[in-house]
TrEMBL record:
GO terms for cellular component: plasma membrane. This is Glycosyl transferase family protein. GO terms for molecular function: transferase activity. It comes from Hyphomonas oceanitis SCH89. CDD domains: DPM1_like_bac. Keywords: Membrane, Transferase, Transmembrane, Transmembrane helix. The chain crosses the membrane at residues 247-268, 280-306. InterPro entries: Glyco_trans_2-like (IPR001173), Glycosyltransferase_2 (IPR050256), Nucleotide-diphossugar_trans (IPR029044). It holds the Pfam family Glycos_transf_2. Residues 23-185 form the Glycosyltransferase 2-like domain.
Length: 333
């Protein structure tokens, strides 16, 4: 409780103008059952912290009653604004939309499923008050995703750490508090394919962790099936590493060297011992083996080319259909 009390004394002052001290950005996708419980805990915590704040909820094309629940919540929570995207653009795009619309001196990212507990916010603010630009939540009790997901997650972070140009914390997700300059740096990045966990580290600035216990999802189910997680992990590696391309360069060199040695052995053995050149079976096996490797390497190369193609089209990362709530004249677009 002492931590909360100290935060009250530090954050009761309202910033000049109508800029809130803290913007809380929450992406929503089919989270109708979590809206009320999340906002109840979040507003209660902010009442203890004190100071001005806003909640920016981003509806990422939900197909359930999420938008209706958020609009109804605006009547109870005047600090809330809702950004409705024209369709489901994905969590990375929804988070960026919220960051773009946030007006606060600091910006907090958190999930809508209550696995990021609002009760951790005071501790994150305390660290930020020491001048730290990025404060990220670090899971102290692991994940509540089961053995398979936990194992795959650990393997991904191990592979990413050994291949990418920068390190990302293994126990951190999107539960993060940014200073205004860190948030501005993040939103200035123009790329379409955004692997946010890598971008958080790429922007640099001072970063520290705050431990928290992962909460249990109160309603609904995870929006990340296993196959989607594999795709997300592959996107992360492709976005921050050229190692897959270099691997195929090494494989090509090894195969070419082996083929040259084998050809020399055939020539020497034929001249020295008069042996016939091996027949159809050896040749067919070599053709199929090399053909498969070529198709696989072309596929890896195609992943990079596809991302180049997506970037050259320069399409917007998201499209806002409407904005609800807020007290300013820009509340509805």
């Amino acid at each position: 409780m002492s931590g909360v009390s100290s935060m009250i004394s530090k954050h009761t002052a309202t910033p000049s103008g109508d800029t809130p001290a803290l913007s809380i950005v929450i992406p929503f996708y089919n989270e109708a059952g979590n809206v009320d419980a999340l906002l109840e805990r979040l507003t209660a915590q902010m009442a203890l912290i004190g100071g001005s704040f806003e909640i920016v909820g981003v509806d990422d094309g939900s197909r359930d009653a999420t938008l209706a629940a958020l609009i109804a919540a605006c009547e109870r929570v005047p600090e809330m604004r809702i950004v409705k995207l024209s369709r489901n653009f994905g969590k990375e795009a929804a988070m960026l939309a919220g960051i773009q619309e946030a007006r606060g001196d600091r910006i907090l990212l958190m999930d809508a499923d209550l696995q990021h507990p609002p009760e951790t916010i005071p501790a994150m603010l305390e660290v930020a008050d020491r001048g730290v630009d990025v404060v990220y939540g670090a899971r102290s009790n692991g994940r509540n995703d089961g053995w398979l997901r936990n194992t795959l997650s650990r393997q991904f972070y191990r592979i990413f750490a050994s291949t990418a140009e920068m390190k990302i914390p293994a126990d951190a997700g999107d539960f993060r508090l940014f200073s205004r300059r860190a948030a501005d740096a993040l939103r200035s990045l123009p790329e379409t394919n955004r692997f946010m966990k890598g971008l958080y580290s790429w922007i640099g600035f001072s970063q520290e962790s705050v431990p928290y216990d992962v909460g249990v999802r109160s309603s609904g189910s995870s929006k990340w099936p296993i196959l989607k997680l594999f795709s997300y992990a592959w996107d992360g590696i492709i976005s921050f590493s050229a190692l897959p391309l270099r691997i195929w360069s090494v494989i090509g060199t090894v195969i070419a060297t082996g083929a040259l040695i084998y050809a020399m052995w055939i020539v020497i053995s034929t001249l020295a011992f008069g042996r016939d050149i091996p027949g159809y079976a050896t040749l067919a096996s070599a053709i199929f083996f090399l053909g498969g490797l070529q198709l696989l390497s072309i596929g890896v190369l195609g992943e990079y080319i596809a991302r180049i193609f997506a970037e050259t089209k320069q399409r917007p990362i998201y499209i806002i259909e409407d904005i609800f709530g807020g007290t300013d004249d820009d509340g509805a677009k």
